[in-house]
Design goal:
The chain is built from seven helices and 26 strands. Helix content is 18%, strand content 29%. The N terminus is likely disordered. A hairpin with a 2-residue loop joins strand 1 and strand 2. It has 505 residues and is α+β, with helices and mostly antiparallel strands. Strands 22-21-20-23-24-26-25 form a seven-stranded mixed beta sheet, with helices on both faces. Strands 5-6-8-10-9 form a five-stranded mixed beta barrel. Strands 14-13-12-15 form a four-stranded antiparallel beta sheet, with no helix packed on it. The two termini are 34 Å apart.
Length: 505
């Protein structure tokens, strides 16, 4: 398998290659659509159609195709095309700027909604410096590698919310494990033989109707009529909204409330933003029902614990998968060290409302939760009281300063002056990391390396930034002992991933 990297919106995109063949065939269809002013006309005309072989799928859920281009700039100008032709060619994995192919360049074209091994007709709508974006027009021949399935949602081909409805969940989960493996290899620079293979992606049987939070949007009403044109999500290929009456991955009760609120918004009866602007709607399903006010407190149960938090605050929104993930985190944290030592102290960085910290409390002597959001710390402290947990303390501070904090961890019903985080016994301390999508900051990681806890349990919603951080963790005296992906959001490209690092003795 080969990993391809390309820049896109200041991010890197990685693709897991399933085959090394590419199909090149071109048809000029530019005359049927007005060309956008900023359209770059090379190497393809606007809406030029290409017949392509899909080689791979990126971790952004987009199909990867390659096509031969002449090396000479004058030969790259658009040509007249009288009809649709096709020719399959065996190719090598050349980068666009790779001079190892004197006869031609391999230009990358990204096509959403495709499957490796399919032959497709795609229509180009954007050319970048080293690749093009295209829309899927039709399937010419099916893949022999994967089975295409009928999407549940009629908008699956247009709505940007789901990337994989046309693929079986079985294949989705295989792809996700493979993508994590490749990210660790290419970003962290781990040789595949030097770290444990990524485990099969864990999911539940709830493939649709699982999402307990939904945030559809609407744009500024029309200036002349005052009408709202669409309530939904961004389209796959353009920065415009598509109207979404129902969401297949949202819970049935959210969809019921969505229908009611849509009618209220369209009629003008309800507008969360009173000014003549667009807005984001909130639908949060909890014990209290479906809540639309982000400032209302809600409660939900995870395992044996109850959690109370603001409806608009972050809290994982797959109630079927969340207890499973918590169980894996606790199992990783509680495992004895290789020397047989029991873990006694836990530090939960980026702790939010206290999910991992409180869930682990009964198995540790002391747990400390750190969170930059003071409101979340208030919620975590209240959740400890709600569940009668007395050995957890929460501190509002940047994770970058946690190990140097002079604030003592004081437990309930104890008269002692408390203990500093820096005084936790290193050989029996576990640090849980659950950072935002951007991963951990260098300042935090530098402190973590100096602190040297026995174990680091790292949960991430972006395996790419996790792989980046993993490289530094391993180079500072730790071994990656296991990597477990989770399918928290079936039908989408998103992957939650748990990496466990043990201090090398």
């Amino acid at each position: 398998m080969v990993l391809n990297i390309h820049g896109h919106s200041s991010k890197f995109c990685f693709s897991l290659t399933a085959t090394s063949s590419s199909l090149s065939s071109q048809v000029n269809d530019a005359s049927t659509k007005a060309v956008p002013k900023r359209f770059r006309p090379f190497p393809f005309e606007y809406h030029q159609t290409l017949t392509l072989l899909v080689e791979s799928v990126t971790n952004l859920g987009v199909g990867v195709c390659r096509i031969d281009l002449p090396n000479k700039a004058e030969d790259m100008k658009p040509q007249e095309h009288s009809g649709e032709t096709s020719k399959i060619e065996t190719v090598q994995n050349y980068a666009v700027d790779d001079d190892s192919s004197p006869e031609s360049l391999k230009w990358v074209i990204f096509v959403p909604g495709t499957i490796p091994g399919e032959t497709v007709v795609a229509r180009v709508f954007r050319n970048h410096n080293s690749y093009s974006d295209a829309d899927l027009v039709r399937i010419v021949s099916p893949s022999k590698l994967h089975e295409r399935v009928e999407p549940v949602c009629p908008l699956a081909g247009e709505c940007g919310g789901c990337q994989y409805q046309h693929v079986s969940v079985h294949d989705q989960r295989i792809w996700k494990s493979q993508q994590v493996q490749e990210l660790l290899h290419k970003i962290a620079k781990f040789e595949k033989e030097s770290f444990p293979s990524v485990l099969p992606t864990v999911g539940t049987e709830h493939e649709y109707g699982y999402r307990s939070k939904l945030t559809p949007h609407y744009d500024r009403p029309d200036k002349k009529t005052g009408e709202i044109m669409a309530i939904g999500f961004q389209r796959k290929s353009v920065r415009k909204l598509i109207d979404v009456p129902q969401c297949a991955i949202a819970t049935p009760t959210i969809n019921e409330r969505l229908k009611e609120v849509r009618e209220e918004v369209y009629s003008g009866e309800y507008r969360p933003n009173k000014k003549n602007k667009g807005a984001t709607l909130l639908f949060r399903e909890a014990n209290e029902g479906v809540i639309t006010d982000p400032n209302q407190y809600v409660t939900t149960k995870v395992g044996e614990l109850n959690f109370r938090f603001l409806a608009g605050n972050f809290f994982q929104n797959n109630p079927y998968m969340l207890p499973v993930m918590v169980e894996y985190v606790l199992k990783a944290a509680l495992k004895h060290s290789r020397g047989g030592k029991k873990m006694t102290h836990l530090i939960d960085c980026y702790c939010g409302s206290g999910l991992f910290c409180l869930s682990a409390a009964k198995s540790f002597a002391i747990c400390a939760g750190i969170e930059i959001n003071e409101k979340a710390i208030e919620e975590a402290t209240a959740n400890a009281e709600l569940n009668s947990i007395k050995n957890c303390a929460f501190v509002a501070a940047k994770a970058e300063a946690i190990f140097e904090s002079q604030e003592r961890i004081k437990l309930k019903d104890e008269e002692e002056e408390g203990i500093l985080v820096s005084e936790f016994p290193r050989k029996s301390t576990v640090v849980i990391l659950d950072p935002p999508r951007k991963g951990c900051s260098e300042e935090f990681l530098d402190q973590l390396y100096k602190y040297q806890p026995q174990r680091i349990v790292y949960m991430s919603c972006d395996p790419a930034t996790q792989a980046r951080d993993a490289s530094g963790i391993v180079s500072n005296g730790y071994e990656l002992t296991s990597t477990q992906p989770f399918d928290l959001f079936p039908q989408t490209r998103h992957i939650e991933c748990l990496c466990v690092f043990e201090k090398v003795e």
